[in-house]
Write a structure and sequence with these properties.
Number of helices: 5
Keywords: Metal-binding, Zinc, Zinc-finger
GO molecular function: zinc ion binding
Structural class: mainly alpha
Order of helices and strands: HEEEHHHH
Pfam families: zf-C3HC4_2 (PF13923)
InterPro entries: Znf_RING, Znf_RING/FYVE/PHD
Protein name: RING-type domain-containing protein
Distance between the termini: 83 Å
Radius of gyration: 35 Å
Largest sheet: 3 strands, antiparallel
Number of strands: 3
């Protein structure tokens, strides 16, 4: 699965709503530890499913599944988590590219100089701002390099896992093919073929002897 370019793309393409089902097990959200609304209520169970892991009056919240890793979380809890992060709360898999800070522009510098002109010398303010801009650019470049390296490593790992899975599927198919060949082979058929061949050889030898006589 890809690392999405931004959170909006991830929320629209990278998650799916978990539909209630009688086959789901009762599960708590890993973020808030409250029960998730995953188990379908049936006439036989009544409201028993809503008593799981919490007070009866505690409302269950909708569950969503992250497609990349199949981990399930509460929809509201995951949305809150992604306000400050960009990874799965369970496996720490990167889900989307984090927003990088906007660089300090000349307009920002001019606004700061204008605001501090009455309390400090304009040249001193400019020197301080120039140093801050340089530090900001250096730090931003370092963060981007680290992030790009992490994304590249994650994609390489995903590709390796897909190749291994395809290879395992190929081995399973090959084993099934060999098993089918063995099942179609019967020893008695082989022995019958041998007897027929030997009979034909014997007849040929008799014909040769008669011709010689």
């Amino acid at each position: 699965m890809p690392v999405y370019d931004n959170k909006t793309d991830f929320l629209s393409l990278g998650i799916e709503v978990v539909v209630q089902s009688i086959y789901h097990s009762k599960t708590n959200c890993t973020i808030c530890l409250e029960p998730l609304d995953m188990v379908e209520t049936t006439p036989s169970t009544g409201s028993a499913d809503h008593d799981h892991g919490s007070d009866q009056d505690t409302p269950l919240h909708a569950a969503v599944r992250i497609k990349a890793c199949n981990h399930v979380h509460g929809a509201e809890c995951l949305a809150a988590w992604l306000e400050v992060g960009n990874t799965c709360p369970i496996c720490n898999r990167m889900l989307f590219v984090p927003p990088f800070e906007e660089p300090i522009t000349q307009d920002v510098v001019d606004d700061v100089i204008q605001a501090l002109r009455d309390v400090a010398d304009e040249e001193d303010i400019s020197d301080v701002l120039a140093r801050l801009v340089f530090e900001d650019q250096t730090t931003g470049a370092t963060r981007r390099q680290q992030f790009e390296a992490k994304v590249a490593a994650q994609r390489k790992q995903t590709e390796a896992q897909e190749r291994n899975r395809e290879f395992d599927d190929f081995l399973l198919y090959e084993d099934d093919f060999l098993d089918s060949d063995v099942e179609d082979w019967f020893p008695e058929d082989y022995e019958g073929d041998e007897n027929e061949d030997s009979g034909e050889d014997g007849d040929d030898e008799k014909e040769v002897e008669e011709d010689e006589e």
